[in-house]
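$ run holo --ligand "WQD" --emit tokens
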Amino acid sequence: MKKVIVTGGAGFIGSHTVVELVAAGYEPVIVDDLRNSEERILNGIETIIGFRPTFHRLDCTDPIAVSSMLDEEGDVHGVIHFAADKAVGESMSRPAMYYRNNIGSLAVLLSLMRERSFKHIVFSSSCTVYGQPDSLPVSEDSPDRNASSPYGETKVVCEQLVRRQCEAVPGLKAALLRYFNPIGAHPSGLIGELPRGVPNNLVPFVTQTAAGLRDRLRVNGDDYDTVDGTCVRDYIHVVDLAQAHVTALAWLEQAEPQTCEAFNLGTGKGRTVMEVVNAFQKENKVIVPYVVGPRRAGDVVSVFADTTKSREVLRWEPQLTLEDAVRDAWRWQRALAVKA
Ligand code: NAD
Ligand code: WQD
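-- output --
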């Protein structure tokens, strides 16, 4: 079996990817220090796949720890690097922490991969690298790189670092996956997102409001130039996103040495905040109390993906709908409430 190191494999997107890697016949090895995740996600993975994957609890910015883990693991087919800090607001108040973790962990991994001649890396990037694009849908060659937070800047720098490494290291190949807005959870209700504190992201806030943990959702502005005045995003089911990592890895195996390509991972469909709230209410037959508040500082008005490249080159496209995602998100929220 082909062994794949999954950094951040206990996290939201990483845990779902571990499940899909197993389904595709790979052997995932989870590397995570659980700074933003919990053991219970490993239990959920175990229940879904029927065994507990190898797990190393360590900090990916620690070269000695990562090096000895790689020595222990031996022959590694590829690395999927999810581990990063991801809260945009926190990155404004702690920029050095974001640069240190997000760029530092990648630099450590790339150096150690080079020493060991590992060939494949899949990197978690983000549509945040586009800022507010000049034209929509946004394609991978969009020139706009107006990332508006230290978090976003780390993704721009990391992409550049991976590109440079591919130019410099014979045989290395990379996929830079630019996620749009991942939502939902595994349909089993056994794994999903674990937001810390008050969620900043829309769907976790919606699920917590529906569950009565928050009084009401605040819709951040309804006076934008969009169909209903609320901001537009491209929401993608996390299971579709997870499968895209497996597809990207298989694509890299066939690619020319020194390939480094970026791919948009979204649905290609823009949805407003109110469309998401309404879909959630309708699909789950629950009420989400909300008020309309002011605009959120720094919000992009509208962004959704041009998916041509991922469809034509990777031959990947999402299978699940917004309705699937809001249903699965709600199932996960209820499972959390039962366990709490
Ligand atoms: P997450 O926080 O749920 O998962 C990240 C995991 O990495 C966590 O389990 C955390 O404990 C771990 N981690 C962080 N730093 C680490 C370190 N130094 N050593 C070991 N483990 C570490 O986040 P997620 O939503 O699953 O995001 C995964 C990746 O996708 C991140 O790189 C994120 O920037 C990127 N991304 C996420 C979104 C999103 O909306 N969720 C969108 C675009 C890109
Ligand atoms: C979506 C829309 C909000 C909460 C962030 C990061 C981005 C990426 C994904 C990692 C916006 C509105 C939200 C609420 C609301 N992450 N909203 N009330 O802003 O697209 O992106 O997560 O790479 O980098 O910036 O996602 O879920 O925060 O917001 O009205 O309580 O929902 O204003 O219009 P966003 P989001």
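-- notes --
The longest strand covers residues 120-126.
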